[in-house]
Amino acid sequence: MFSTLFSTFTQNTSNSRVDLTSGNWQAMPMVQVEPAQQEDVEYIHRISKDVFDIYGDYGKILPRFFTSQGVTTYVARVADNVVGFVMLGFLPWAKGVTEGSPWIADLLAIAVVSGHQRHGVGTALMQQAFDLVAQMSEWRDVKEIQLTCAESNTIGLSFFARHGFKISNPHHGNYSEGQVALRLTRDFVSGSDGD
C-alpha cells in the first residue's frame, strides 16, 4: 500500500495573520501534516461528514477509501487536534497498464474544519499532495492531478484555481445530492510540483 511507502514524511508550516483592528501580526498555531494512522479514521469520518455532507454520504464513503490499496491519506494537526485531511489515489492513465505507462494522481478529498479554514491548513495539505505526487513520479510517469468539485462550491473552486487547477470537464456528472460535478485537472511535470 502506498501509505506505507511514504509514512516517514512530515511537513510543518507556520502562518501569520494581521489583526485588522490593530494592524498587528499574530502568529498562527503551527500546522503539522503527517501520514494518517488507523486511529485517525474517526477524525476523517467526522470531518468528511461536516464538510461534505451536502454532497452525499461522504462520512461513510471516505473512511472506506482510507483502507483502499493505492490511497494515501495525510492529516493536518494543530495543537495535536486533527483539523483536516487530504486523500490521494493513483490510477493508470488508460487500461492495459504496462511498465512505463502514464498514471494520474486522483485527489479524492481535501477538507479542513470550518474553524481552521483560510489559515493555511488547506495549502499545507495541498503541498503535501504535490510532494507525494513528486515522490511517486520518481518511479511512475504521473501525467496530471485530477479532482472533482461541485460547481456550487465557489470557495473550493477558487482554492483549486490558486493551486493551478483548471476545469477540464464541466459536465463530469452529479453528486448524489444533485449538485453538478466539475472535473478539474492540473498538469504535472515529473521532477517538479508543476508550479
Verbal overview:
There is one protein chain. With 195 residues, the chain is of the alpha+beta class. It has a single domain, classed as Gcn5-related N-acetyltransferase (GNAT) (Aminopeptidase, 3-Layer(aba) Sandwich), CATH 3.40.630. The chain is 26% helix and 37% strand. It contains five helices and ten strands. The strands form two sheets. It has an eight-stranded mixed sheet with strand order 1-4-5-6-7-8-10-9, sandwiched between helices. A two-stranded antiparallel ribbon has the order 2-3. The two termini are 28 Å apart. Mean pLDDT is 82; it is low at 1-22 and 191-195.
Major pleated sheet? 8 strands, mixed
Coarse morphology: globular
Low-confidence stretches: 1-22, 191-195
**Strand residue percentage:** 35-45%
Number of strands: 10
CATH C-level: Alpha Beta
Distance between the termini: 28 Å
Secondary structure category? alpha+beta
Please tell me the overall pLDDT.
Answer: 82
Please state the CA-atom Rg, rounded to the nearest Å. Answer: 17 Å
Structurally, the number of domains stands at 1
What's the gist of this structure?
This protein has a single domain (2-187), classed as 3-Layer(aba) Sandwich (Aminopeptidase).
Topology record:
Blueprint: H1 2-5, E1 11-13, E2 16-18, E3 25-27, E4 31-35, H2 41-52, H3 58-66, E5 71-78, E6 81-92, E7 102-112, H4 121-136, E8 141-150, H5 154-162, E9 166-174, E10 180-187
Helix pairs in contact: 2-3
